[in-house]
Amino acid sequence: MIPLEFDRPMQTPRLTIRLMTDADIDAITAHESRADVCEYLLYEPRTRDEVAEKIADWAIRTRLRRDGDFLQLAVALNDGRVIGELYFSLVSVEHETAEIGWVLNPDDQGRGYAAEAAAALLDLGFGRMRLHRIKAELAPENTASVSLCLRLGMREEAHFVEDMFVKGSWEDTGVYALLRREWEAQA
Predict the structure, then answer these.
(1) Number of H helices, E strands in the chain
(2) 4-136 is a CATH 3.30.390.50 domain
(3) What is the Cα–Cα distance from 168 to 187, expressed in whole angstroms?
């Protein structure tokens, strides 16, 4: 239910999804500083200082209660090593809609971690929060994220042509989404 206080880590068979801390700066910098990781993101590669500043902000964002509130969570293997991050934003309280996103260190891709982590966030959104709809917005040429959306049961809803000016050029946006009733049918 809304509001949600993210007050404890989520566990999956192989992962812990939790709030970020200063101890995560180097692990997050390891992927956020890479040009190949940032290719489909809205920002250029970040320095360690920029990541530290972001984590200081993300670490105190623990509540989803109004439009625009978000969580930026660390994705760690159960041994504690951080391999990526998840984004979860409350888009509309009135329409019970959220947005999900993910970034994984390329060194840890291809093992199903992103799907496992994203599925846990869908469970949080649809199960615990009882949201109606969760969407993902991404670069349509990001085939790995498109494939992940489809594996999660999301459907393509839109392809907006040159709708965002990002890093000096006009870029397309793909929208994928899932409704709670569709998520429940998959379970």
Answers:
(1) 6, 10
(2) no
(3) 42
Backbone angles phi, psi at 60, to 5 degrees: -95, -5
Cis previous bond, 3, omega within 30: yes
31-55 per-position pLDDT tens digit: 999 999 999 999 999 999 999 999 9
Flag whether the pTM goes above 0.90: yes
Q: State the Cα–Cα distance between residues 163 and 172, nearest whole angstrom.
A: 6
Q: Give domain limits for the chain.
A: 4-136
Secondary structure class of 182 (helix, strand, coil): helix
User: DSSP readout, 131-172?
Assistant: -SEEEEEE-TT-HHHHHHHHHTT-EEEEEEEEEEEETTEEEE
Structure tokens at 69: 């509130």
- Pairwise CA distance, residues 73 & 165, whole Å: 26
Tokens for 98, please give them.
Answer: 């959220």
Q: Which tens digits make up the pLDDT trace of 119-132?
A: 999 999 999 999 99
* Alpha helices (runs of H) in the chain, residue ranges in sequence order: 25-32, 35-38, 48-58, 113-122, 143-151, 180-186
